[in-house]
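QA checklist item 7 of 12: single-chain prediction sanity check.
[x] sequence parsed
[x] length recorded as 267
[x] structure emitted
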Amino acid sequence: MPLSGKVAIITGAGQGIGRAAAHRFANNGASVIVSDKDEKAGQKVASELKNAGFPAEFIHCNISEMLDVLNLMAGTLEAFGKVDIVLNSAAIRDDKPFIELSEDEFSNVLDVNLKGAFLLGKITAKQMIKQIKNGDEPGNIIFISSIHTVLAEPNAVAFSVANGGLGQLNKAMSQALAPYGIRVNAIGPSNVMTPMLAEVTKDDKMRKKALERSPMGRFGNPPEIAAIASFLASDDASYITGQTIYADGGGLSMRCSRPDDEDEEST
């Protein structure tokens, strides 16, 4: 199995892409730390894995809080003794016109989506470097971002700004950690049927609009993104770092050829 013997931390694992990745990683041989600030949802996913016979534990974490991230790492080491893979899928989204967006709402999205990724990446990297010095193999870090890494949306300003920053964090971290052999990559999905997108597309007009902007004519599914994450976490991706893989059903390529389009809704 491609992740046999590995220990993976997955944040935002209580639902959507994070939950799908927890199941995928476990089926591919990894021991999984299920992490989420929603304790009920996270405990449920950890129980699903345990009941299926997989090694898994739940650890509560709000990644925008340094103490929570430190406790997440400490709990991971207590449970499994090391960390090889971190997949950060914790994110929130604003949904207001720019002129109505408050300072607190803007800050909250950046705290979770960007500062949280920085904190998680930093604490993870320090632990991985310590393990490398003790003779372990380098690990890797994966961020779930969005097509809003390169596109912007007027009714999701904070989300767009945070993803733009996450794209740069991904590149900068990959360069800083490459000398240690630690790989850092991101996945930029769009129109994946997570609870976040389900809320946006409850309106029939919005649903139709979103589907029109996917050349494949359908929404993506969380397991499809989990499969990409599992590939990036494996040795099959051993020469890939600093990259963002856009999984959007071809929507971004259509945008490049039709720049007058309005922005689509994302995950």
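[x] summary fact logged: The first helix runs from residue 16 to 27.
[ ] second reviewer sign-off
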